[in-house]
Amino acid sequence: MTEFELMELLDVGMKEIRSAISFISEATSPPCQSARSLLEKKVENEHLSGHLPTHLKGLDDTLCGGIPFGVLTELVGPPGIGKSQFCMKLALSASFPVAYGGLDGRVIYIDVESKFSSRRVIEMGLESFPEVFHLKGMAQEMAGRILVLRPTSLANFTESIQELKNSILQNQVKLLVIDSMTALLSGENKPGAQRQPQLGWHISFLKSLAEFSRIPIVVTNQVRSQNRDETSQYSFQAKVKDEFKDNTKTYDSHLVAALGINWAHAVTIRLVLEAKSGQRIIKVAKSPMSPPLAFPFHITSAGISLLSDNGTELKGPGINTIHARGHSDMINFHGDCS
């Protein structure tokens, strides 16, 4: 309403109206804060913050300690690149004793695609932390701290995560993994436009759950082929649209993350796993605490291992493109998941 409409409605003078608007504006507008005051506030609330170590030194240094608490972290990449392996290693780390770099807590692992393997987790533990896992009964105890849920539908998943909010704090849960969100939505027989309201609700709920519980939430995301006539997701990518068309027949195919731009904005950390020129690479594509960096890695019996702790800084549209060597005709999730 205008000031004159308020005068008529409330039957008061202009002076009172302007005074009331000024008072309400001051009460509802957030005060300005300096970088110093934000830092002091962060130090005061340090007990509410923290990181889950990945035990990949270069990546942990880049992320200031590992996967941060209280936000959504996304792993995105083509099938078979190592996303689930990464998640299983994180689950192991969260269940580990604090003295050995873990969080000494329980883990809820929502295994949508039935890729979780207890045997693989124990193998990673024996190879990565032999001094702990060879202790009597330790392997069974660590595996027992990881609760695996396998929802059969999106409705079943929605019901499960709503129940989690009340049990996370009571049961000392220190990590929530969803592997993968895309598979849940892909199983719904609805066009992409009709899935967006469902995805929007889940984005809001997961973000609020992370903030409420102050634990790391890690979600995997799949990829889809970038349509040749598709408009760029980001304005700075428009300049390379023609170049992309010229290179679509090369041996390395260009993919984009599924779930769309709204999901991309919702996640705080995006880690891209890709295969380029015969080499697996993990990219810190989105992070408020570091520049975009790329680390070569391989997968061993101990899990994911970096070939170098020194990341290579990335620039331009290559930050968001995803390479999958030799999969240009095999991987196509189309646009209905985005």
Topology, please?
Elements: H1 3-10, H2 14-28, H3 35-44, E1 51-52, H4 57-62, E2 67-68, E3 72-76, H5 83-95, E4 106-111, H6 118-128, H7 130-133, H8 138-144, E5 146-149, H9 154-167, E6 173-179, H10 181-186, H11 192-213, E7 217-221, E8 223-225, H12 241-246, E9 252-257, H13 260-266, E10 269-276, E11 279-286, E12 293-300, E13 303-306, E14 312-313, E15 322-325
Parallel strand pairs: 3-7, 3-10, 4-5, 4-6, 6-7
Antiparallel strand pairs: 1-2, 8-9, 9-15, 10-11, 11-12, 12-13, 12-14
Keywords: ATP-binding, Nucleotide-binding
Domain RecA family profile: 48-223
GO molecular function: ATP binding; ATP-dependent DNA damage sensor activity; DNA binding
Overall tally of structural domains = 1
Helix content: 25-40%
* Count of runs of 4 or more consecutive helical residues: 13
CATH T-level fold name: Rossmann fold
Structural class: alpha/beta
Radius of gyration: 23 Å
The CATH homologous superfamily is called P-loop containing nucleotide triphosphate hydrolases
CATH class: Alpha Beta
Q: Which percent range describes the beta-strand content?
A: 15-25%
The global form is globular
Mean pLDDT: 81
Low-pLDDT regions = 229-252, 326-338
Number of strands: 15
First-to-last CA distance: 39 Å
Give me the strand/helix succession: HHHEHEEHEHHHEHEHHEEHEHEEEEEE
Instruction: Quickly give the CATH architecture.
Output: 3-Layer(aba) Sandwich
Q: What characterizes the major β-sheet? A: 10 strands, mixed
Q: Please, what is the oligomeric state?
A: single chain
